Fold:
Amino acid sequence: MFEAFAITLAALATMQLAPGPNLVVIASTGLSEGRKAALLVTGGIVTGVCLWVLGVAFGIGTLLLTYPVLMTGMKLGGGAYLLWLGSKGILSLVRGGDSKISAVSFTDGQPPHSISHYKRGLLVAMANPKAALAWAA
Structure:
């Protein structure tokens, strides 16, 4: 039992060394919209991670073993999300615009409400393919 725990802990610690979408959204929000907005995004990410932990506790791994098509769907969805983000960056660069990739566009020039920051963090945590595959494994 302890050996499985130690292996899992080592794998998760190693995964945390590589920056991912969570770090990117917190850093970009903090730099562009301030500390309060970044803290709200962080709150959403923490909630998303807690939801993944609850999913593991209630047997998401067993569900994915029973229905492997769900795991394939998660992999394809995560890959599609990363391709979409990459294509946005490439298109922005080709069009000559700034190379900023923004998850939210402000049509009226006003920043989003606090709940929007929280929801953005929650969405990033739940849609993060690295986290989804790690917790589901």
Remarks:
- The mean pLDDT is 79.
